[in-house]
């Protein structure tokens, strides 16, 4: 009986190790929410806005709902590279700053067009966006086609 239990535990441990190894080989990580858009500081956001270039800022936190929009955000970032600056801001860095910008829902997006004043926003969007919605908003507010 003892030998049977020991064999079962060995088999279970081996199976667990195999599954874990497969996940690691496939690139699974504890947080899949890493974006290709750089996580910016408050100062970097302000500088990007003052640059005069069209800017899309993604406000996020570590919640699962913030992770669902990443494929569309990253796809838009790649499609508009060199035309639109895409930045991300983790609201846990500075909650007061996020509240001052009225970011109460994650994800939230700010579309900012050619402004030397950081308080002039072209568009605020709450909640996840599809790639098609990014295209529509970028065309509407920045007049840039993909």
Describe this structure in words.
This protein has 146 residues and is an alpha+beta fold. It folds into 2 domains: 30 residues; 101 residues, 3-Layer(aba) Sandwich (Glutaredoxin). It has 6 helices and 4 strands, in the order H-H-E-H-H-E-H-E-E-H. Strands 2-1-3-4 form a 4-stranded mixed beta sheet, with helices on both faces. The longest helix is centred in the N-terminal third of the chain and has 24 residues. The chain is globular, with a radius of gyration of 21 Å. The N and C termini lie far apart (68 Å). About 14% of the residues have low confidence.
List keywords for this structure.
146 residues, alpha+beta, Glutaredoxin, 2 domains, 4-stranded mixed sheet, 4 strands, globular
Instruction: Give the strand content.
Output: 5-15%
Strand pairing plus helix content: what structural class?
alpha+beta
Low-confidence stretches: 14-34
Average predicted local confidence, pLDDT:
74
The CATH topology name of the largest domain reads Glutaredoxin
Can I get a quick summary?
The chain is α+β, with helices and mostly antiparallel strands. 45% of the residues lie in helices and 14% in strands. It has helices at residues 2-25, 42-50, 64-67, 70-79, 95-100, 131-142, and strands spanning 55-60, 85-90, 108-112, 123-126.
Topology, element by element:
Layout: H1 2-25, H2 42-50, E1 55-60, H3 64-67, H4 70-79, E2 85-90, H5 95-100, E3 108-112, E4 123-126, H6 131-142
Parallel strand pairs: 1-2
Antiparallel strand pairs: 1-3, 3-4
